[in-house]
């Protein structure tokens, strides 16, 4: 693995444009639970009860209880060495984009500015009726209401069965198509469309790299696979750039 790590480091050092896709494993060392691991969120909470638009329509109290719990838990977490290294990568590589499936906001807290939150954000609130949207990290009432029209607010995240935030997929595809290195970090690659981004990158000539605790369904298709903790591997890739 050391030889591969050195090769990836050299590739990054000489690259024109890097696109990084991150998933829940990137935040694991901050204490944010992943979705599908041993203690993953979807093992203890039934996704269909909590992350679907119709569940929210039927039982907003239950869905808000889950999201208020996640906001409180994630609000105590700090960026880890993986986030810090990706922020450093953005500072070093002029043409850089980070696409995250995470809704915890930790990449921005670490200092990344070029971030696409493809599944939205825990810290965004959207009115279910009018156009009110706001960023808000404060403690919320059990079922928050819109200050403009008085209707229900909902978390600004993408639920199962909902389309991505408008424009996000087009932007991601455009950027991946012109990248020369594509890094996939801390994702099980089980949720589309993110799981197929590596294929787009490959089709357009990028070198593809997976950094994950364990092999994923995509490992065999990547040019390099570095297995271990993102918080240990990523800092090694950006030192001495
Ligand atoms: P998963 O929980 O499916 O996968 C997390 C991956 O991170 C696993 O492959 C772990 O092995 C790996 N991992 C854990 N700790 C790690 C560490 N310290 N360093 C590196 N890797 C580590 O999470 P995602 O792939 O992000 O969507 O899940 C994708 C989407 O599924 C989520 O955005 C969410 C969920 O349903 C929505 O809610 C719309």
Q: CATH topology of the largest domain, which one?
A: Rossmann fold
SSE class: alpha/beta
Q: Using only CA atoms, what is the Rg?
A: 18 Å
The strand count comes to: 9
The overall number of domains is 2
The unique ligands bound to this protein are: 2'-O-acetyl adenosine-5-diphosphoribose
How much of the sequence lies in strands comes to: 15-25%
Shape: elongated
List the strand order in the largest sheet. Answer: 3-2-1-7-8-9
Mean pLDDT: 94
CATH homologous superfamily of the largest domain, by name? Answer: TPP-binding domain
Helix count from the secondary structure assignment:
11
Q: Sheet with the most strands?
A: 6 strands, parallel
Spatial gap, N to C terminus? 19 Å
SSE string: HEHHHHHHEHEEEEHEHEEH
Q: Please give the CATH architecture of the largest domain.
A: 3-Layer(aba) Sandwich
- Amount of helix: 25-40%
Pick out the low-confidence regions: none
Provide the descriptors you would attach to this structure in a database record:
three-stranded antiparallel sheet, six-stranded parallel sheet, 241 residues, 37% helix, SIR2/SIRT2 'Small Domain', Rossmann fold
Account of the 3D structure:
This protein is an alpha/beta fold. The chain folds into two domains: 2-32 and 79-119 and 163-238, 3-Layer(aba) Sandwich (Rossmann fold), CATH 3.40.50.1220; 33-76 and 120-157, SIR2/SIRT2 'Small Domain', CATH 3.30.1600.10. Helices cover 37% and strands 19% of the residues. The protein has eleven helices and nine strands. It has a six-stranded parallel beta sheet with strand order 3-2-1-7-8-9, sandwiched between helices. The protein has a three-stranded antiparallel beta sheet with strand order 5-4-6, with helices on one face. α8 links the parallel β2 (95-100) and β3. α1 (2-13) packs across α11 (230-238) and α7 packs parallel to α11 (230-238). The longest helix is centred in the first third of the chain and has 16 residues, at 60-75. The chain is elongated. The model has no long low-confidence stretch (mean pLDDT 94). The structure holds 2'-O-acetyl adenosine-5-diphosphoribose. The site of 2'-O-acetyl adenosine-5-diphosphoribose has 26 residues, from α2 and α11.
């Amino acid at each position: 693995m050391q030889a591969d790590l050195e090769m990836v480091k050299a590739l990054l050092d000489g690259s024109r444009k890097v696109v990084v896709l991150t998933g829940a494993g990137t935040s694991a060392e901050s204490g944010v639970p992943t979705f599908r691991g041993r203690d993953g969120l979807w093992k203890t909470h039934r996704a269909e009860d909590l992350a679907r638009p119709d569940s929210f329509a039927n039982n907003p109290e239950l869905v808000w209880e889950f999201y208020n719990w996640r906001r409180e838990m994630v609000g105590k977490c700090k960026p880890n060495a993986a986030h810090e290294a990706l922020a450093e990568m953005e500072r070093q590589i002029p043409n850089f984009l980070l696409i995250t499936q995470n809704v915890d906001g930790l990449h921005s807290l670490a200092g990344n500015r070029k971030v696409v939150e493809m599944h939205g954000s825990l810290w965004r609130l959207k009115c279910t009726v009018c156009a009110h949207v706001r960023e808000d990290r404060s403690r919320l009432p059990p079922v928050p209401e819109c200050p403009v029209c008085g209707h229900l607010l909902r978390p600004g995240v993408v639920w199962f069965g909902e389309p991505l935030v408008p424009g996000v997929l087009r932007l991601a595809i455009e950027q991946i198509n012109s990248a020369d290195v594509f890094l996939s970090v801390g994702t099980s690659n089980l949720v589309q469309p993110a799981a197929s981004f590596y294929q787009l990158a490959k089709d357009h000539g990028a070198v593809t790299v997976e950094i994950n605790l364990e092999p994923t369904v995509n490992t065999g298709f990547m040019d390099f696979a570095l297995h271990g903790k993102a918080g240990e591997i990523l800092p090694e890739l950006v030192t001495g750039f």
